[in-house]
């Protein structure tokens, strides 16, 4: 869906790989991270905590958006408590997704 809208995307198969990919990138390479919560090896909560803990400025500021079937208020709160900026529940509504991305991209 994002590629159809013209976005460049890097896809990682688990939370550990998300962390490694971000960690090895040049600061500013990524405008946003869409973080699945239920991933193997390292879940999205732990990956977010580790990204936020990296010693680089963009790790503190890059928007991280939760993508999850966990849509209760407690789930939204947990996502925010670990440093995620927003929460998108599955199944994904493309219009809500695009509105959320535009909100965090400042467009």
Structural description of this entry:
With 107 residues, this protein is of the alpha/beta class. It has helices at residues 15-24, 44-52, 57-61, 73-81, 94-105, and strands at 33-36, 64-68, 86-89. Strands 1-2-3 form a 3-stranded parallel sheet, with helices on both faces. The longest helix has 12 residues, at 94-105. The protein is globular. It starts with 14 loop residues before the first helix and ends with a helix.
In short:
The chain is built from five helices and three strands. It has 107 residues and is α/β, with parallel strands linked by helices. It has a three-stranded parallel beta sheet with strand order 1-2-3, sandwiched between helices.
Which terms would index this structure?
107 residues, 3 strands, 42% helix, 5 helices, alpha/beta, globular
Shape: globular
Uncertain ranges:
none
Approximately how much beta-strand content do the residues carry? 5-15%
Distance between the termini: 18 Å
Helical/strand content category: alpha/beta
What order do the helices and strands follow? HEHHEHEH
**Secondary structure: number of strands:** 3
Q: Profile the largest sheet.
A: 3 strands, parallel
Strand order of the largest sheet: 1-2-3
| Share of helical residues | 40-55%
Radius of gyration, CA atoms, in whole angstroms: 13 Å
Mean pLDDT level? 90
How many helices? The count is 5
């Amino acid at each position: 869906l994002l590629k159809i809208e013209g976005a460049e995307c890097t896809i990682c198969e688990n939370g550990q790989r998300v962390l490694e990919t971000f960690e090895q990138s040049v600061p500013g390479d990524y405008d946003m991270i869409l973080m699945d919560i239920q991933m193997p090896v390292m879940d999205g909560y732990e990956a977010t905590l580790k990204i936020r803990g990296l010693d680089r400025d963009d790790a503190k500021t890059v928007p991280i958006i939760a993508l999850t079937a966990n849509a209760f208020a407690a789930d939204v709160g947990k996502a925010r408590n670990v440093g995620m900026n927003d929460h998108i529940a599955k199944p994904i509504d493309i219009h809500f997704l695009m509105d959320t991305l535009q909100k965090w991209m400042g467009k």
